[in-house]
Write a structure and sequence with these properties.
Number of helices: 12
Number of domains: 2
Helix content: 40-55%
CATH architecture of the largest domain: 3-Layer(aba) Sandwich
Strand content: 15-25%
Distance between the termini: 28 Å
CATH superfamily of the largest domain: Response regulator
Low-confidence stretches: 1-32
Mean pLDDT: 91
CATH topology of the largest domain: Rossmann fold
Order of helices and strands: EHHEHEHEHEEHEHEHEHEHEHEEH
CATH class of the largest domain: Alpha Beta
Radius of gyration: 21 Å
Length: 331
């Protein structure tokens, strides 16, 4: 996956944020006394994670804690994420919020944090064994996949007795969100829409350019392709670009995941039939609040082991208010 590049790192101290707003100066000793919560994601530049940052920063400021926000700039993979986690753990945070890029490869990172006395919360994705994870917070991924199947079947005009070819673009074969969405999508198609066949899958490592190439290859390989399920935001962005470049807007149905502003804007232009929107800011906010609660009380009381936040499907029939409400905000 390449050698570790210079990391994009931002440390947000709630006290410093307050100082900027009030004109007061926070003494170094005061800042050092704050609890430190580290937040490590996969591809830091992904708008989904940038939207998470909005929720994390707000929660850190509200709870008077220091937020260490760190991630590899662009590539979503264990090879790039594990060194980032190691660097963060060396900073000795009081808690770690981790979005693991692989359930198996990142399990030792959770064990390493536990050995150092650092509680871990998983957000969005999770490690395989959650016994040492305080809480796992995510969107309803299986349901999102099922809803994507319904939207795709409607978009291609599914009729019993006819055959349709569809493809799926993913970021990773093992990221638990992708696995759950594909499972929900596949099961709904198998149960409700005979004749629709998933003829191919490809992976992008959260890079829109790679997703664009994957879709361009499919459009050449399958001239009778009926639809595409882009299973997350970067794949959606890449797929949209490929369809527009080949003049196939509206001719190949595109169902995407994640309400990036650029993608939401393309609903009205007919590039996306539908987008499944999550609430990344709410996920991050709750993760910070749970970490603070645990650090303050040393108790799991009031902290749910598993939290699932519902998805929303956006389409041309969605109101302007809903489109604005669920579009991911970035900083």
């Amino acid at each position: 996956m390449g050698s570790l590049k210079k990391l994009s790192v931002s440390v947000i101290a709630a006290g410093v944020v307050g100082a900027l707003l009030t004109g007061t100066v926070v003494a170094p000793a005061q800042a050092a006394a704050k609890k430190k919560i580290a937040f490590v994601m996969g591809a830091e530049s992904d708008p989904f994670f940038q939207a998470m940052k909005v929720g994390a920063v707000a929660a850190a400021a509200a709870n008077n804690v220091e937020l260490i926000w760190q991630g590899y700039p662009s590539e979503y993979s264990p090879a790039t994420q594990i060194p980032v986690v190691d660097q963060v753990l060396a900073l000795k945070p009081d808690a770690l919020v981790l979005i693991p890029t692989d359930p198996t490869a990142l399990q030792p990172s959770v064990a390493k944090a536990k050995a150092a006395g650092i509680p871990v919360i998983n957000v969005d994705t999770h490690v395989g064994d959650l016994k040492d994870v305080l809480s796992f917070i995510t969107g309803d991924n299986a349901d999102g996949g099922a809803k994507a199947a319904d939207a795709l079947a409607k978009a291609i005009g599914w009729k019993k007795g006819k055959k349709y070819k569809v493809v799926v673009g993913l970021t990773s074969a093992t990221a638990t969100t992708n696995v759950a969405r594909l499972d929900g999508f596949s099961k709904r198609i198998l149960r409700n829409y005979p004749g629709i066949k998933i003829v191919d899958k490809a992976y992008s490592q959260s890079q829109p350019a790679k997703a664009n190439t994957n879709v361009s290859n499919w459009l050449t390989k399958y001239p009778d392709l009926a639809g595409i399920f882009a299973i997350d935001g970067t794949n959606a962005a890449g797929a949209a670009a490929a369809l527009q470049a080949k003049g196939l807007t509206g001719k190949v149905a595109l169902i995407g995941y994640d309400a990036y502003k650029a993608n939401v804007d393309l609903i009205g232009k007919g590039v996306f039939t539908a987008l499944v929107a999550q609430d990344p800011a709410a996920e991050a906010k709750l993760a910070i609040e749970y970490a603070v609660k645990y650090l303050n009380t040393k108790s799991k009381s009031g902290i749910k082991k598993n939290v699932v936040i519902p998805n929303v499907v956006l389409s041309k029939s969605s109101t302007a208010a809903d489109l604005a409400k669920y579009t991911y905000v970035q900083k």
